[in-house]
Give the backbone structure.
Amino acid sequence: MTEFISVVIPTYRNWTGAYTLAEALGRQVLPAETELDVVIVDDGSGEIPPETVKDLKYVQLLQLEKNIGRAGARNAGSRASKGQYLFFIDCDCLPSDNKFLASHMHALRHNAVGSTGHVLGVGGGFWDKYQRLASLRRQKQHRQGHVWVGSTQNLAVARSAFEQAGEFNASYRHYGFEDREFLIRLSSIGAIAWPLEASVLHNDAVHLTSIVEKMIQAAALSARTFSSHHMKEYRTLGYARIDARLHTWLYLPARLLAPFIKPAARMLDNTLPRLPFFLAYSLVKLITAGAFLYGSTLEQTDNGDEQQARP
């Protein structure tokens, strides 16, 4: 009996990335008696998809009328999919080789309910090395028993377990933590594997300025929700140490540093390639931590607009 492997790709105004990923998935070497089903979820962009996407016979195109956020888009894609096995990959990523799907499938067919793996950089420059170190750190945490540290950039799950866990929490509409929150629930059902062969390449230009914006938004919105339900895991991830909601004495330093964070990120973006790696690495960690700390002092509207600092 043929089983479907469904890959859900959420996208918002990145048709090139979605097509490139879908086309690469079509070259995967699938396990015996399986068939590929790719669902591209347009999260309310209002754009007309290019013909190249429509021409891929194994691709379903799901266009949402309004933007519902990452978690909701993945849920919508999973409901439209055919597969007994669900894969979630971001549209700016690519499988590292043509056995990516098969490697995750091997884990799911051998007692794991979920499977995550490395998210690696490309190009050999600073951000390539930075992302590889970050992924190795997450792999180490996984081996230590923190099996929920993976990412929806690279996630496979049995449909039955996905439904039993309750899908992604759609209240996470903004950047950060929705993947860890789901994996915490999934880990209560069964084992989550980390096959070394199942890696993705983050095939997109990385800029410190955009990371800073994401850290501010994550701290102000998603981190508040996540920490209120999963404080132990929040501390394990290290964010609790730089959250002014938990350490009120950090509020004043955060506000004093706030005007300098974004200009520092812009300046460092231009100089990173010329700096020794570990100096650049340390400066990036410092600036992103400062951005998260600053974000934890903010109240934001649900659309992510910054409001006044908390009293």
About this structure: The first strand starts at residue 3 and ends at 11. Residues 208-309 form one domain. The mean pLDDT is 95.
